[in-house]
Amino acid sequence: MNKSSGLLFTLLILASCSFKQTQAQSLLNLRGNPFYINGINIPWNNFGWDIGLHPSRGVGYDPFFFEEVFSNLESKGVNTARFWLHCDARATPEIDQNSFVTGLDAPFFDHLDDMIERAANHKVKLIICLWSFELAEEFPDLIRDEARTQSYIDLVLIPMVERYADRCNILAWEIMNEPEWTVKNLKRGNDGQVELSEIQRFIAMQTAAIHEHCDHLVTLGSASLMWNANLRDNPNKDFLWSDEALQNAHDDPLAYLDFYQIHFFDWMKEWGKNYDPFLKAASWYHSDKPVLIGETPVVSEHYEPEEMLKYAFQNGYMGTMLWSYAARDGLGSWLGTDDALGDFAQNFPYPQYLADPCTYYEPDSESLIMRSNLLQSGEAISIEANLMDEGPIRILIRDVQGRIILDRRSFLHPGKNVFQLGTRVKGSGLYFLQINDGPIKKLLFY
User: Mean pLDDT, the chain, as a whole number?
Assistant: First the structure.
């Protein structure tokens, strides 16, 4: 008999002191479900004109390409893909001679509808990247001028996010890929076309608009930890994409990122070990939000793809998106990447984190236990178990990285049993409780 089936479990906090958070919340929490990204960058089939109508080349959308992509990803347990939409605006949106956005061409939504639906059919979530840094070379005034930015928001962005507001397989909208390369006089950056304050405002305005009009997450594809973390040796001094920085650029409390995203390539090793995310925990850089490694090359002199996937998980990142499926730049392709992603998914210690991205449930009180007072070092946790039969019991508590925080064995008698778990659970975040071989109960302290 499974002794856990007759138990009623209740966590009791025996003290109510506040706790100073010291660790990053490493996983996304989607409607009560922890979600870990085992992902890849598509990122395009035709750069900048997969969706909509190119003015000279015509239609670039290939449904057979995307069907093959998403089918292959599903077969290897890949749960998230990053796709680039407008890029440098070579095809969409429609922009007049004065750099004002005037709308979208006729086939745009037909194409995007179809792609999103194909991804959903294969249980793949999407991070849709709106722009890439090349926009500043082609249409710098769209970034520099608030009215021109607003024309895009009003005529394209808001209608688009409202159209897809109920699509559960859109994980996030990404405002721009590697915006640092657009900035003038940025240390260790390129000599870009716009001021830092201008690109920050451009990003902040769109971020606020998305948060106002849908519940999807918003992120930004920062080129490096150089610009997306507070580091002592950072020559830029500032954390460019913090809530404070974005809201200073655009005075709106909705101008914030839901999770940070950083990229890593071999050449960043020249800057020192602090810019290699595989060498340090995510919490070393950020303590307030999850961190995604949004690009990292399959072809690397320093790491095999299997190592990148493993180290990212061990270091507390919210996932990894390998580069790439079809960028055709010599840094990776699906062949050679597929087995690494498949093996990671197959051997992942918590398969429920990788589960069907559109299968949600509202956890009951036994599944998700939340406390407004965070745990403080020195507090004790007790388990109360009401048992109809006597028998041995084993209680396991693991953290989000699968490490056993507590392994307690005891013998319970019929009736009410209360015993101490001790003080091994220290800090806010997500933990997992399992009694004997029963279902795993999620414990979220915040």
Answer: 84
